[in-house]
Amino acid sequence: MLSGQRREFRLSYRCGDSFFQMTAAWFTHEGAAHVVVAHEDVTELASARQDVRDIAGRLLSLQEDERQRIAADLHDSTAQHIVAAGLGLMRVQAAAGDHQNVERAVAKVRSSLDEAHREIRTLSYLLFPPNLRANGLAASLRRFVEGFSERTGLKGTARVTGDVDRIQPEVQRAILRVVQEALVNVHRHAEASKVSVSLRRDPAGLHLRVSDDGKGMPRKRTKATAAPASLGVGIPGMEARIRQFGGTMTIASGVRGATIRAFVPLHGDTAVPHLLAFGTEHDRIELPGSPPNLRVLPDGNDSSIG
After folding, report:
1. Three-class SS of residue 211?
2. Superkingdom, according to UniProt (predicted)?
């Protein structure tokens, strides 16, 4: 820093049950280089953020349970009512005989019921993906994308490289849920014909990419997602899942579709939660919550499929 090669330095570390942060800033005065150093106890801040992370994890877990319940209700109850309505229409058509007006009206209603049945089956599948614990992340991801393609008619591809089945189960679940939510958005809004999912593990961590060739995200919606993420469905929920493990997420949207990229750092075979990712000497590590973890690029030039 005194040589001017670095302008700032930040070190966060743990000592016993306490957390501390040292920051240094470089400046010049009367032609000479100086460094001002500050050291502070951030135990309360780290503890508060750990509490927030724990609450966020519990809320996401509750959200997941609720989604599974809704998916089961759609599949077991609502879909059955639609099937029963279709059978009732068949009886109405048989009783009407050769009356063409009745037959045309029944045909329109039946078409609407068939479409509603397909939509419910698709959404119930998207809300309740394959068994992660039994199949592992790689197989679950491939099966999920395959099932998505079968139910929606979109051409979906999934590519997984690296050993992703040995990472922390909570991280596996978060990755699968992010893909799940991304495909729901593609199905509902993108008007796409193709979607690709890529998950890669390297020494730094997990790299996830979901892209489609649809119409992209409207600018007004893109601006809304640039606000601080909160728990909930859609993009804020996706970002919250990635952020709880110290990861980042970016969205690039343009005329060739939208691309979501997420990165989760890994240490060994597990992911270190953001609130506990304190560094060692000479590392520059930010305390959690300082920079925004979500960047939205409304006019991205990323190739949407590949």
Report:
1. strand
2. Bacteria
Question: Coil, strand or helix: which one is 49?
Answer: helix
Q: Report the alpha-carbon distance of residue 243 to residue 236 in Å, rounded.
A: 10
To the nearest whole number, what is the mean pLDDT of the chain? 76
- Listed ranges 97-101, 203-207, 240-244, 293-297; the one with the highest mean pLDDT: 203-207
Domain housing 18: 8-41
The CA dihedral of 203, 194, 131, 73, to the nearest 10 degrees, is 140
Q: Is residue 106 within 8 Å of 92, Cβ to Cβ?
A: yes
Can you give the CATH number for the domain in which 227 is found? 3.30.565.10
Q: For the stretch 56-71, what's the b/e string if a residue is b when 16 or more beta carbons lie within 10 angstroms of its beta carbon?
A: bbeebeebbeebeeeb
Those residues whose C-beta lies under 8 Å from the C-beta of residue 117, and which sit 6 or more positions away, are: 79, 82, 83, 86
Question: What is the average per-residue pLDDT within 195-219?
Answer: 90
Query: Distance (Å, rounded) from C-alpha 200 to C-alpha 160?
Result: 6
